[in-house]
């Protein structure tokens, strides 16, 4: 019992890979949540509790006393939980990623899914066990009245479980995803709905990326749980306890990003991209290959744009980086294949000997992504639904004259909408028209909008975003 500030998240700041000779290699964990928080806890005493995600992680934990990877990394101390692989798989893949993620991003193809039968019940039991393991570890590690920052949809039950173990603690929960409206959230079985909502309400402070997601959560509490939601005061009261609701629109540390993007590895990727693209205009997108990112409709929109505007043939290139994600799930593997099929179709239809209209790359390469941002004339961000979308914020920082085509369903639209070309993510023709408008936007207009986009994107950098939430835990 020693830490005064603790973070809990499924994915941790580091991960390990097991090599053939049994050795372990360490690298940084990936994803928006991890990169934001890693920056915040750099060289601090904040204890980060996370799950072992792979055999490599489990190998590292087994060599570490109490699962504590202390002081070995600039992230500060880490405690990795060695949850049995089958339990972890059901909690992470089946419940968190295939159920809660799908509900909150409105991803179900409802004639076929979801289906909540006995199999789901076993998965749900594992989700409880997994959340319980976090609650127990946090209860063991937290000092009296410590502040515990629980992250995301993987850990919705942990706040209430932790409160039972340690009523002295000050607990926050933060959702990095959107939140579904009550009629969609109610696809979940009634008892599961109640457990998720009361799980989060176990926290003193429940944070969201936008007012829209916060409102949806409060609506769910009111409609599906019978809690009292005070929208003006942003509180939810249930069974005598009140949880404060916070809106914390995570932004980007502009200086750090600009410095990283000025490094030589990024410069050399820029040279490679310039050689490929020549003096043509560049439309860029950068995403995880994620169902909610709407990559296929984005490519279809580009295809429609090319069909409608032959004058652009040979004068524009679309660079689409769609790096791998959640490949344990069949839907994600199929989606990657669909993205590749669509790209091939565009190539077959339009490529000529000296013009490649589309360059699709499905490998992760951070410096190359930074290089693409810097060269972009247009950035396409068209998710079906997204908690925030930091790509939309990073782009304008690195390319001040880049026009942003942005889905109205991305959390970032709340701050960036006025200076973007907003699109309905399902409207392929509308997106095609927006791509054309973005390419032809006058230079001065690009710069004026770019300046305002950059300001909005850097308004709440991770450090302040985190401090505000700590301060909210009075
Ligand atoms: O949007 C929620 C989130 O946790 C992001 O912060 C992160 O980029 C993404 O999901 C990563 O998911 P996973 O850990 O499953 O790769």
Largest pleated sheet: 10 strands, mixed
Summarize the amount of helix as a percent range.
40-55%
What is the residue-mean pLDDT, rounded to a whole number?
A: 95
**End-to-end span in angstroms?**
20 Å
Secondary structure tally: strands: 18
Alpha-beta classification: alpha/beta
The bound ligands are: 6-O-phosphono-beta-D-fructofuranose
Q: Beta-strand level of the residues, as a percent range?
A: 15-25%
Rough outline? globular
What integer value in Å does the Rg equal?
22 Å
Largest sheet strand order: 5-6-4-1-7-8-9-12-11-10
Low-confidence stretches: none
Count of discrete alpha- or pi-helical segments spanning 4 or more residues: 18
Can you characterise this structure?
Helix 3 (85-104) packs across helix 4 and helix 7 (190-201) packs across helix 8. It contains 18 helices and 18 strands. The radius of gyration is 22 Å and the shape is globular. Strand 7 (142-151), helix 5 and strand 8 form a beta-alpha-beta unit. It has helices at 32-41, 55-63, 85-104, 118-141, 158-165, 182-185, 190-201, 211-225, 254-261, 264-277, 295-308, 330-350, 366-375, 391-398, 413-416, 428-439, 443-457, 462-472; strands spanning 3-8, 14-18, 24-28, 47-51, 68-69, 78-81, 142-151, 170-174, 205-208, 228-230, 235-238, 241-247, 281-288, 316-323, 358-361, 378-381, 403-407, 421-423. The protein is of the alpha/beta class and 474 residues long. 49% of the residues are buried. The strands form three sheets. A ten-stranded mixed β-sheet has the order 5-6-4-1-7-8-9-12-11-10, sandwiched between helices. The structure holds 6-O-phosphono-beta-D-fructofuranose (F6P). The site of 6-O-phosphono-beta-D-fructofuranose has 10 residues, from helix 1. This is Trehalose-6-phosphate synthase. InterPro entries: Glyco_trans_20 (IPR001830).
């Amino acid at each position: 019992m020693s830490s005064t500030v603790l973070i809990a998240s499924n994915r941790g700041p580091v991960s390990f890979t097991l090599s053939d000779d049994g050795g372990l290699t360490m690298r940084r964990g990936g994803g928006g949540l991890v990169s934001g928080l890693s920056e915040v806890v750099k060289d601090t005493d904040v204890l980060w509790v996370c799950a072992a995600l792979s055999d490599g992680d489990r190998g590292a934990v087994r060599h570490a006393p109490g699962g504590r990877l202390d002081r070995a990394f600039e992230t500060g101390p880490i405690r990795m939980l060695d949850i049995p692989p089958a339990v972890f798989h059901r909690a992470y893949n089946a419940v968190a990623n295939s159920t809660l993620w799908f509900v909150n991003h409105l991803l179900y193809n409802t004639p076929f899914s979801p289906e909540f039968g006995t199999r789901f019940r076993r998965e749900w039991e594992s989700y409880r066990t997994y959340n319980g393991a976090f609650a127990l570890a946090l209860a063991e590690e937290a000092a009296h009245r410590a502040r515990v920052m629980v992250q995301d949809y993987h850990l919705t039950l942990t706040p209430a479980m932790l409160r039972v173990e340690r009523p002295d603690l000050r607990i926050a929960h933060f959702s990095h995803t959107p939140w579904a409206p009550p009629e969609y959230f109610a696809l979940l079985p009634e008892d599961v709905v109640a457990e998720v909502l009361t799980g989060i309400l176990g926290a003193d402070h429940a944070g969201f990326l936008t007012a829209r997601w916060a409102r949806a959560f409060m609506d769910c509490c009111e409609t599906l749980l019978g809690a009292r939601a005070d929208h003006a005061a942003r509180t939810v009261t249930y069974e005598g306890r009140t949880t404060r609701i916070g809106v914390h629109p995570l932004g980007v540390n502009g200086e750090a990003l600009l410095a990283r993007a000025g490094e030589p590895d990024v410069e050399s990727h820029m040279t490679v991209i310039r050689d490929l693209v020549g003096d043509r205009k560049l439309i860029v997108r950068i995403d995880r290959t994620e169902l909610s990112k709407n990559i296929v409709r984005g490519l279809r929109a580009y295809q429609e744009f090319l069909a409608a505007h032959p004058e652009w043939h040979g004068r524009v290139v679309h660079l689409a980086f769609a790096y791998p994600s959640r490949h344990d799930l069949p839907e994600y593997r199929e989606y990657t294949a669909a993205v590749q099929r669509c790209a091939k179709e565009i190539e077959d239809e339009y490529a000529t000997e000296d013009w490649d209209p589309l360059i699709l790359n499905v490998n992760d390469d951070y410096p190359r992504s930074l290089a693409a941002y810097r060269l972009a004339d247009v950035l396409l961000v068209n998710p079906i639904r997204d908690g925030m979308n930091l790509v939309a914020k990073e782009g304008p920082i690195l390319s001040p004259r880049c026009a942003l085509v942005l889905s109205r369903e991305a959390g970032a639209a709340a701050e960036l909408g006025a200076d973007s070309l907003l699109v309905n993510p399902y409207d392929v023709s509308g997106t095609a028209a927006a791509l054309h408008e973005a390419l032809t936007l006058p230079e001065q207009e690009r710069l004026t909008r770019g300046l305002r986009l950059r300001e909005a994107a850097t308004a709440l950098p991770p450090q302040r975003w985190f401090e505000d939430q700590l301060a909210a835990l009075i």
